[in-house]
């Protein structure tokens, strides 16, 4: 892996940028790598299974991941993930605008097997 | 009417109800635009507007309408730029009349202001009408309906453009349709030109949130730096005959347009990238190509389109009582611990002492609030704010919550200060589907 700015890369934020949006109680977060060489690492690090495992109380519904290969991005669609959505949520951020940083705050999966598969 | 060397120039002058005005004036003056779109309506905004209209039949439109029109009409008249907006919200007729008054006061004579109605479909549905995307029916909400609005597409807007309107004001005009309609009108696209409709819808989707494509909702210092964000410019789309476009902004404004800003907006509030549903078309964004031309210019091509959805979406707004919020802050050593004690006290007082069962949430800002349910909290913060939120249809409960939080000043943990409390009206929205034949958009032109 090539370190950006000489820093060790630990988080999804170190290789990608993201934006969150809401529709009802469904949150979607789109995520894009800066460098296409990191796309496999992103795909390995941000999977529906992992989202369900990391945030079991928040993300209660189905997680669907769309892969946009040619633009090196993912679109995560997370059902029942907004504490009722803007109509019902008592979270200060009832739209889940900050959910992009929930995903960007995930650690990267830099496991050996993964590192091998990356190339 | 195209002004830009074979391209049709559309600018966004507002991307949501409370968006900035001064950069819109700059764009109207310098943008050489064919059309400026002011997108100011969300599902909840229209529900709140219905409440405004119930309180005063002369209102129910965007509260910034007069200010926006006063600032933009002279420049748009000068540049022969057509304004298209959904600022009419729950009362497009009143909005058009107010705009006419503003134009007259500015001495702009001969201005044609079109008012589009027909999106209000109140009274069509029975209480057994099923929701569009979840189990249940309208009756299950158990709250008074404040309004029902069908999403109108480009076909509701085009007749007003054919009538040479200078300003087009509607209520629930679908966001991308406000961009697609002038493109269909200018380039002569028909409803069967699905690829063009998909491309025009992509332009609308990218542009509808204003600065979200020119550097707003994007900056992350050190990682994603944006120049002069305080003076961010609104976007411009230079669209050619096949619907492909260059997204850019005015020279001399802050912000940036690059591949990354466009990508983030491309799938903003999109689920399946192959099926973005609007009243006009099922747009396919999954093969969109982006080319960064430099100097804040990105070319977007290769959107696709398939047949439009059979039915139209309707947003139903309900009166949902109030949202009450109150807070007190703690700082210094063990602030987090003292804040947690305050949280426990409020919770006990509300639930046990006052037997209040409405949904209540207590957060500690600074120790984990937005991500609390996600499991991300910390206890070492030396500056926390207790934040208590309550949704209720009983105003007494809301006032009791504020009272309890304020009482912490004397009755709570040591060193609590900075109490604030506010009670705001709440709405709830649901979606249902309607047969197209039941929605009959009309337009009327007012001349100054």
Topology:
The complex is a heterodimer of chains A (119) and B (448).
Chain A: E1 16-23, E2 26-33, H1 39-45, H2 48-54, E3 63-68, E4 73-78, H3 99-104, H4 112-118
Antiparallel strand pairs in A: 1-2, 2-4, 3-4
Chain B: E1 8-14, H1 22-30, E2 35-38, H2 43-55, H3 65-79, E3 82-85, H4 92-105, E4 112-117, E5 145-150, H5 154-162, E6 167-169, H6 177-187, H7 194-207, E7 235-239, E8 245-249, H8 259-266, E9 276-277, E10 282-284, E11 289-294, E12 297-301, E13 304-306, E14 311-331, H9 335-353, E15 360-365, E16 383-392, H10 395-411, E17 417-435, E18 442-447
Parallel strand pairs in B: 1-2, 2-3, 3-6, 4-6
Antiparallel strand pairs in B: 1-7, 4-18, 5-14, 7-8, 8-12, 9-10, 10-13, 11-12, 14-16, 14-17, 15-16
Helix pairs in contact in B: 1-3, 3-4, 5-6, 6-7, 9-10
> How much helicity do the residues of chain B have?
25-40%
- What is the radius of gyration of chain B? 24 Å
Low-confidence stretches of chain B: none
Q: What is the mean predicted local confidence, pLDDT of chain A?
A: 90
H/E series of chain A: EEHHEEHH
What's the overall geometry of chain B?
A: globular
| Greatest chain-chain contact | A-B, 36 and 47 residues
Number of strands of chain B: 18
Counting structural domains of chain B, the number is 2
* Strand line-up of the largest beta sheet of chain A: 1-2-4-3
- Helix-strand makeup class of chain B: alpha+beta
